[in-house]
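// run 5 | inverse folding | seed 20
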């Protein structure tokens, strides 16, 4: 499968990030003691400017370093290097990625795209142990997969799972993985955004509530853990936005709460059934609503209804009159979804996240829609999502 140049799978990786605290030099000395460091000059190279750390900053930096060291020592034994070999002889190909130990039964979580296409899967642990693994479950729509290895339980170190619902922009984000095949690489950054709804490459369905981070992620990091400041997994590193295929400071991780929901199903059944409404839609903003003459400023406007899906059976309508809006043509006249079971919907992204996180196939939902200026309640029974 090929993806646009601006969207690359992390495929598998991370580069190191230097964390430093540099104070501003000022004419008046800061109150209290200051810690200064200097580096001997190298012949032929200008001497570096000494770094002045304000009182207490040195201790804070040292504490952060100790915390990162402790996290690495705690989590790195849980992170594995995954190699997938296919073909033979001169035609043999090998792709690499990362993963982490999920439990003491030998289950390992990684990305679907790391093992997609089959082949021999080889897992290498941090201590050098190398074993064959079998794929026991995959879910292309969430880009998650589960492997299983035959390793004594006492030698397995499961990760601690956090809560991605509590993740917020600005908090520390730490990744451990195998970028470019460089095993056991740690990188550090922050969570730069949450709640992203991303449709990877040529996939049909989007992944909701993804975590965005500026921690460097590169080919080889895919499937590895994104951690919080306590060493708990908050996401599975999956992809980057990049013009070059290497880190541009915008990476994405599948939220760990999605892992909690899907991985047990992959272990038990080998697959996961997502709920399906059967529409394509558009996120309405106040400006778009004004241009289209809609009675509400926010919502999910139905553009098209799949004739095979639950929405069609419930009588929901898509657009029929293409209207130019802000430089693009939008099919107008479709139903505007403004709530699901009484909870407000302000965008198509909201609707996707609500369906994915709170419902399963077979559930019946009530959609509040606006049609011809009137509010209607429509009951829809969700179906299993068709294969993408």
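// decoded
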């Amino acid at each position: 499968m090929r993806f646009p140049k601006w969207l690359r799978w992390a495929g598998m990786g991370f580069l190191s990030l230097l964390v430093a605290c540099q104070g501003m030099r000022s004419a008046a000395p800061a109150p209290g003691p200051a810690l200064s460091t200097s580096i001997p000059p190298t012949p032929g190279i200008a001497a570096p400017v000494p770094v002045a750390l304000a009182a207490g900053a040195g201790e804070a930096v040292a504490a952060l370093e100790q915390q990162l060291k402790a996290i690495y020592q705690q989590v790195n034994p849980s992170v594995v290097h995954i190699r997938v070999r296919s073909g033979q002889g001169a035609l043999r190909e090998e792709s690499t990625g990362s993963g982490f130990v999920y439990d003491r039964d030998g289950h390992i979580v990684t990305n679907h795209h790391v093992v997609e296409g089959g082949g021999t899967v080889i897992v290498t642990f941090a201590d050098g142990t190398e074993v064959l693994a079998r794929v026991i479950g995959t879910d292309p729509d969430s880009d998650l997969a589960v492997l299983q290895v035959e390793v004594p339980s006492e030698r397995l170190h499961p990760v601690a799972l956090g809560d991605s619902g509590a993740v917020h922009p600005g908090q520390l984000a730490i990744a451990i993985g195998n970028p470019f095949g460089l095993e056991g690489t740690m990188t550090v950054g922050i969570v730069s955004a949450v709640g992203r709804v991303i449709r990877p490459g040529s996939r049909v369905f989007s992944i909701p509530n993804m975590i965005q981070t500026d921690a460097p992620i590169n080919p080889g990091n895919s499937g590895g853990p994104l951690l919080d400041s306590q060493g708990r997994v908050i996401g599975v590193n999956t992809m980057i936005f990049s013009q070059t295929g290497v880190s541009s400071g915008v990476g994405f991780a599948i939220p760990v709460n999605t892992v909690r929901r899907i991985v047990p199903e992959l272990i038990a059944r080998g697959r996961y059934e997502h709920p399906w409404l059967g529409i394509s839609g558009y996120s309405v903003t106040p400006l778009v609503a004004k241009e289209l003459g809609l009675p509400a400023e926010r919502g999910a406007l139905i553009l098209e209804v799949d004739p095979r899906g639950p929405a069609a059976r419930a009588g929901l309508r898509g657009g029929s009159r293409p209207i130019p809006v802000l430089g693009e043509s939008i099919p107008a006249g479709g139903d505007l979804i403004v709530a699901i079971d009484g909870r407000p919907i302000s965008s198509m992204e909201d609707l996707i996240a609500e369906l994915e996180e709170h419902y399963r196939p077979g559930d019946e939902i009530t959609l509040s829609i606006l049609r011809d200026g009137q509010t209607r309640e429509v009951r829809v029974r969700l179906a299993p999502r068709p294969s993408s």
